[in-house]
Sequence to fold (278 residues):
Amino acid sequence: MSYQQIKWLILWIPTLTIGIWEYLRHTVLLPYLSMELGNLLSPFIVFAVTVTLLRKLFRKLETTQETLRREQSLKAALEEREQLARELHDGISQSLFLLSVKLDRLEQTDSKSEAQEQTRQIRSTVRHVYEDVRQSLAALKEAPVVTDLSWTQSVRTLAADIESVSCVRVMLDWRLSDALLSAREKVELLSIVREALLNVQKHAQATEAAVSCRAHEQGFSCEIRDNGIGLREERRRAAGCYGLRMMESRAEAMGWQLTIESGQGTAVRIESKGGARR
Fold:
């Protein structure tokens, strides 16, 4: 039975019940029932039918809504995995091309010092590829899927994971309710926060990071701030900064405003002006 059918049955069953009762009462039962007794029995009959049939329909409606919610969450999670897979593919392709160019240069050089420099760069690129693959696979594994864990718990788990693999202390001030955002918005916001924290871990040389997120009348605001060395402008424009472009594209796709300020540390801010999408 479809969701629409269940809703129409819930609307029509009490009306049909009272209509059928009144018809039978006036055409068949009138010689046996007085008007007063018939009027007295009407609400009890409607109540009995409602309890018998509508309770089952309400249970079916709740089951249908839960199934729909899970399907929406699963769809959002699959879209997230596809996006991560594309980013992983693009990053590996470019890094492997860079490796092939450096190997070509290494083969053509006759200078020992230049060969050592090329070897050092190749090792650095290999480590970079390995780190990107490892973190992308971890992100795929940790991407929000249909689970009994709340979204807020997923955020806390992310902060704990960052602390466990680095010397960065993550302070969490999360005041955004699970119910405020849609499943897609939760996936995108958590992905942006994850990427920002991974950048702190990999590049900022920071000891502390603070994540604060709260709701307001127009939507929500979220900030990830660290006490590291800051983000140089040339790095923001570098060809290999996939993470920054990924955060910007995610925010743009959701209609959010993402700003990055750098000075004594770096602050990544996400602002939603239009409220949650249902």
